[in-house]
Amino acid sequence: MFFFTALFFSLLFGFIASRFTSSDNMLILSYSFGVFLAVVIFKGIKTIKFGITKSSIAILLLAFLLPFLYRGILDFSHLSLFENPILTSLLLLTAAFFEEVGWRGYLFSQLKSYSWLKMNLIISIFWAGWHYPALLSGAFLITPPILLTLLFYNLDFFLLTLIFGWFRQKTNGLIGPTLIHASENISYLLFVGTGQIVISLKEEMVTALILVMVVLFLTAWRKPASGGYRGRTC
What we know:
Distance between the termini: 27 Å
Strand content: under 5%
Radius of gyration: 17 Å
Number of helices: 8
Strand order of the largest sheet: 1-2
Order of helices and strands: HHHHHEHHEH
Number of domains: 1
Shape: globular
Number of strands: 2
């Protein structure tokens, strides 16, 4: 029910926003607000933990820098500064927080009795599914072969869920996953650019390979943050 509530309000706010603005960033913010509102409706605000401590500063810095590193490896030749970088970054940071309150906040707390992989698989299915209306709306251009491209597109969501979840777990809060989520979107604009998003098989496969290496790198830190999930870790 949480997923469908979040999807309903995201579609509603996204539609309303589209009547007043053509700004992609404002539409993203409006769509993301639906997830936050669903958390409020399901009384999940109490699950919010920020996870800012002296011991987490290095991990939070890594969360901020990591997407710029791997996105730079993928698309460094396309580096270009987007318009209104400060305002755009603030909007994307807020949108990332709205999402993370739902995915790595409410859902994470609801599914913590599951194994690490099963919990993140479920979250990734909901998270990817929440993006599908944008795919169907034409905001994304999917190149053939479509089914195989979508397979890797969803695989990338699962790998990102493992990575974002690792930061949620290591910091026992939402600032880590919010930072890496926002940096993922900001670095995409920086290295790929604005306009219609093209989803190609080649790019999704290369992205998957890079993300697998990131997951393997993060497994160097296995011990979960105190007070957090104590099941299997990434």
